[in-house]
Design goal:
Radius of gyration: 21 Å
Shape: globular
CATH class of the largest domain: Alpha Beta
Strand order of the largest sheet: 1-6-5-4-3-2
Number of helices: 13
């Protein structure tokens, strides 16, 4: 085994045998598989990196393994699907988008990251590493911008305001292709605004929200930002999350929830926008859709601890209290009437 890949190695005849043996379930851009170590159906393998599989049970297993194949196998059906998804892009743009997707996936899995691994904004390594890539150095970010120029229509590689943004939050569309990228910085946290977003797929109207809902999730949080949404993962590893990319960007989320209401049929919805005027407006906007379309079992507007205005701030200032508020509201939603705005009881 290579010294650069200190993981266990699994050998299969080809990729088709591996997917069959691991009971792989197609989830679009990745497969959910049986973990070869703990046997739970909670390991994931990205389609653009089929030589790597990782158990999602970080606190219980978290095993990482490399896959080796005796023969290449026939993945033409998958490749044809990618071509179909990228059909409205030029060849240069297709190559650029595929390259960007692979680089972000590789960075999440393999790049070391001091800020992410040591608790970025109160978020643990187990939570961040599935969803955030740290490109680490300005020269790497510059190289990414050079390669992405056909998609962005502009080369940001010489703009220090841009290439200092080393933290990458990829957003994927319903067709599971890379749509947008949110960028933040751990190199210079004084950059203003803190977060910006770029459209990486100019062929369509790109999705402007982030979503990750485990199959066994009982609660789904609708929050104003990805950092706020991931804060709830710190207190409930199975909570479903939907994150806006700004308080005014509710249209696509409302449309998706209304069109896929069956996905939320047995879920308890927690609406957790910022505690400010823009957040209150977004809450009313989303709640109106939830009520009109009868989405989910019930819904609750999340109340933060005194002195905090969003989930991430609440988590960082008092993790225990944040967890207590969440657990109390989660317990009370079950069996209650729709639309209860529960008060926190210390």
């Amino acid at each position: 085994m290579s010294k650069l890949t200190p993981y266990k190695k699994l050998v299969f005849q080809n990729i088709e045998n591996a997917l069959s043996d691991l009971n792989a379930e197609d989830k679009g851009r990745y497969y959910i598989c049986n973990c070869p170590e703990c046997s739970r159906h909670e390991a994931f393998m990205y389609k653009n990196n089929k030589h790597f599989i990782q158990c999602n049970r970080e606190n219980h297993c978290g095993s990482r393994m490399m896959l080796e194949f005796h023969e290449k196998g026939d993945m033409s059906a998958y490749e044809q699907n990618i071509e179909k998804q990228y059909s409205n892009l030029t060849t240069e743009q297709q190559l650029s988008l595929d390259w960007s997707n692979r680089v972000f996936s590789y960075a999440k899995n393999y790049f070391k990251s001091e800020p992410l691994d040591n608790g970025y904004r109160g978020l643990s390594k187990q939570v961040t590493r599935r969803f955030v890539a740290d490109l680490q150095h300005e020269d790497i970010v510059q190289h990414v911008f050079q390669k992405a120029e056909p998609l962005l229509g502009k080369d940001y590689s010489n703009n220090s305001w841009m290439y200092k943004r080393n933290l990458i939050f990829p957003l994927y569309g319903e067709d599971n292709t890379l749509d947008r990228v949110l960028l933040r910085s751990s190199i210079d946290e004084n950059l203003d605004p803190k977060e910006i977003q770029l459209i990486f797929n100019p062929s369509k109207e790109t999705r402007d929200f982030f979503m990750d809902i485990p199959r066994d999730a009982e609660n789904v949080v609708v929050s104003e930002s990805i950092l706020d949404a991931l804060s709830f993962r710190e207190v409930d590893e199975n909570v479903g999350i939907i994150a806006l990319t700004g308080a005014t960007k509710t249209r696509q989320v409302k449309e998706y929830m209304a069109e896929h209401k069956e996905q939320f049929a047995d879920k308890h919805l927690l609406v957790a926008m910022d505690d400010d005027q823009a957040g209150w407006k977004a809450t009313r906007d989303i709640v109106n859709t939830i009520e009109e379309a009868r989405i989910g079992e019930d819904w609750v507007a999340f109340d933060y601890a005194s002195g905090t205005k969003d989930a991430n701030e609440n988590l960082r200032q008092n993790r225990k209290e944040f967890a207590k508020i969440y657990n109390q509201i989660s317990a009370h939603t079950k069996g209650k009437e729709r639309g209860m705005n529960l008060e926190y009881e210390p």
